[in-house]
Design goal:
The protein has 186 residues and is an alpha+beta fold. The chain has two domains: 99 residues, N-terminal domain of the delta subunit of the F1F0-ATP synthase (Peroxidase, domain 1, Orthogonal Bundle); 76 residues, no CATH class. It has eight helices and four strands, in the order ααααααβαβββα. A four-stranded mixed β-sheet has the order 2-1-3-4. A hairpin with a 2-residue loop joins strand 3 and strand 4. Helix 1 packs antiparallel against helix 5, helix 2 runs antiparallel to helix 6 and helix 4 packs antiparallel against helix 5. The termini are far apart.
Length: 186
């Protein structure tokens, strides 16, 4: 499990894949589960209600069932939501969804790369980076982007244990070290 703090999600992910029967069936569940996760993330009232021990399991199950129905969640997705609720993990749904996506990538032979940049990358830049990484690795690559103003300019790509640093801050650091080395040799 790559996602920090989501090791608890493994049994839920394994059970979902076993019950759904195929990666395609699991992927078909994601839109409705994403809708529920967005509802939970977007409403402090919902989160407070579900976290409050003063409300009974029946009331909470009713709320989760209503969320699932609104999201048009298939029965398998509803069962996952109930399992998370019953085990006090419903507010960690976003972590579970991240773990599900990671497992889908594993099942399909897709590797994840992280691209950090100062400003959001355009569609063409993302496509170019993805294609270059796919050509280098011979496998499909899913890009995750992060903003990092400390780079000053350019970008940094992490693919597994490899790092490709095309940032201005990296170039300045190399130039500084080269100058320090040259002044030390004089």
């Amino acid at each position: 499990m790559k996602a920090a703090g989501s090791a608890f999600a493994r049994p839920y992910v394994d059970a979902l894949f076993a019950v759904a029967g195929s990666p395609d069936a699991v992927e078909a569940l994601l839109p409705s589960l994403d809708t529920v996760a967005r509802a939970l993330q977007g409403s402090e009232e919902l989160r407070d209600f579900l976290a409050n021990p003063g409300y009974g399991r029946t009331q909470k199950r009713g709320l989760v069932a209503a969320l699932a129905e609104t999201a048009k969640a298939p029965e398998v997705a509803g069962r996952l939501l109930r399992a998370l609720l019953d085990r006090g993990r419903i507010l960690k749904l976003a972590n579970v969804l991240e773990a599900i996506r990671e497992q889908l990538d594993v099942e399909r032979g897709v590797v994840q790369a992280t691209v950090r940049s100062v400003a959001p990358l355009g569609e063409d830049a993302e496509k170019g980076i993805r294609e270059a990484l796919e050509a280098r690795t011979g496998t499909r690559v899913r890009l995750r982007t992060e903003l990092d103003p400390s780079l000053l300019s350019g970008f940094v790509v992490r693919l597994g244990s490899e790092v490709f640093d095309a940032s201005l801050s990296h170039r300045l650091t190399r130039a500084r070290k080269a100058l320090e080395g040259a002044s030390g040799a004089a």
